[in-house]
């Protein structure tokens, strides 16, 4: 009885001060507030993005083996695609931090976050493409070349009103990701295995062998 009364009053206190509750996030829409901004080119970056605060509930201390691992990329092909042309792909997390990384930047001329990814005819060539998120509970991958994807941006986090170090990637005020191994799939960039980050929305349920994480802009 006593404990439930205490809990009830704590709950009332918490809901009376919503800004004091555990997490508050603030969108950072201006590229000039991101690392390595160049006022002449209006570009921030290039930088990688990396796994940050990843949680492995079965590991001692919750530490993930891929904490700090940076971005890579791979391509996707669909039946209706033009043969021999790379038209879309997605950002991955490398399986070994010595593997080839993929750079991102914030393009202040277009106000978009872009990835430097293989695209175009044949083997493809590295080009900058706008990145977006497919807000769907079963996907949520960070993709390029998909016209209906929604924009991604950086966010600041506040815990109990205190600013948290770092800038985190998200979309539509969501910054929680999950990450899972792509298994035997290898990336076209280096033929190495990789991990797949997915942005979580409230309807997303975490699957077996998926780990909750944030995705942080390196250097932030
Ligand atoms: C940034 O560049 C603009 C011109 O594009 C200039 O007017 C402005 O003073 C520059 N700002 C800084 C902080 O250098
Ligand atoms: C999570 O922890 C388990 C048990 O220690 C380990 O086998 C697995 O490789 C870990 N995975 C990650 C991503 O840290
Ligand atoms: C995101 O949160 C900010 C306040 O932090 C709010 O102004 C904005 O409308 C929200 N955007 C979306 C898409 O929910
Ligand atoms: C992330 O998930 C936690 C629960 O694990 C939740 O409290 C928080 O509101 C979520 N934050 C965002 C920005 O999606």
Rg, alpha carbons: 19 Å
Could you describe the largest sheet, including whether it forms a barrel? 14 strands, antiparallel
Q: pLDDT under 50 segments (min length 5)? A: 1-20
Question: Topology as H/E string?
Answer: HEEEEEEEEEEEEEEEEEE
Structural class: mainly beta
* Tally of helical runs: 1
Q: Give the oligomeric state of the chains in this entry, treating copies of one chain as homo and distinct chains as hetero.
A: single chain
Q: Work out the helicity level.
A: under 10%
Number-wise, the strands total 18
Proportion of strand residues? over 45%
Present as ligands are: 2-acetamido-2-deoxy-beta-D-glucopyranose
Instruction: Give the CA-CA distance, first to last residue.
Output: 47 Å
Give the overall silhouette.
globular
Average pLDDT metric: 90
Q: What is the number of independent domains? A: 1
What descriptors fit this protein?
220 residues; mainly beta; 14-stranded antiparallel β-sheet; four-stranded antiparallel β-sheet; disordered N terminus; binds 2-acetamido-2-deoxy-beta-D-glucopyranose; signal; Cyanovirin-N domain-containing protein
How would you describe the overall organization of this protein?
Residues 1-16 form the signal peptide. It comes from Penicillium egyptiacum. This is Cyanovirin-N domain-containing protein. The protein has 220 residues and is mostly beta strands. Mean pLDDT is 90; it is low at 1-20. 7% of the residues lie in helices and 45% in strands. 34% of the residues are buried. It has one helix at 2-16, and strands at residues 23-28, 37-38, 43-47, 49-55, 71-76, 85-86, 88-94, 104-107, 112-121, 125-133, 142-144, 150-151, 153-159, 162-163, 168-170, 177-186, 193-199, 210-217. It is globular and about 50 Å long. The chain has one domain (4-217). The strands form 2 sheets. Strands 2, 3, 4, 5, 6, 7, 8, 9, 10, 11, 12, 16, 17 and 18 form a 14-stranded antiparallel sheet that branches. Strands 1, 13, 14 and 15 form a 4-stranded antiparallel sheet that branches. The N and C termini lie far apart (47 Å). The protein is built from 1 helix and 18 strands. One 2-acetamido-2-deoxy-beta-D-glucopyranose binds next to loops.
């Amino acid at each position: 009885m006593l404990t439930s009364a205490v809990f009830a009053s704590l709950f009332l206190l918490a809901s009376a001060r919503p800004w004091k509750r555990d997490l508050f996030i603030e969108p950072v829409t201006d590229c000039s507030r991101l690392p390595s901004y160049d006022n002449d080119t209006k570009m921030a970056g290039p930088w990688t993005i990396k796994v940050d605060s990843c949680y492995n509930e079965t590991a001692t201390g919750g530490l993930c083996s891929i904490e700090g691992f940076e971005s890579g990329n791979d391509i996707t092909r669909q039946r209706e695609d033009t043969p021999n042309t790379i038209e879309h792909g997605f950002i991955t997390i490398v399986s070994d931090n010595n593997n080839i990384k993929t750079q991102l930047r914030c393009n202040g001329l277009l106000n978009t976050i872009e990835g430097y990814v293989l695209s175009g005819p044949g083997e493809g060539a590295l080009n900058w493409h706008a990145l977006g998120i497919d807000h769907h509970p079963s996907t949520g991958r960070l993709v390029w070349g998909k016209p209906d994807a929604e924009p991604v941006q950086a966010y600041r986090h506040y815990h109990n009103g205190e600013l948290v170090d770092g800038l985190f990637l998200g979309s539509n005020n969501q910054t929680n990701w999950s990450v899972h191994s792509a298994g035997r799939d290898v990336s076209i960039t280096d033929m190495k295995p990789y991990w797949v980050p997915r942005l979580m929305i409230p309807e997303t349920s975490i699957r077996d062998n998926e780990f909750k994480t944030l995705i942080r802009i390196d250097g932030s």
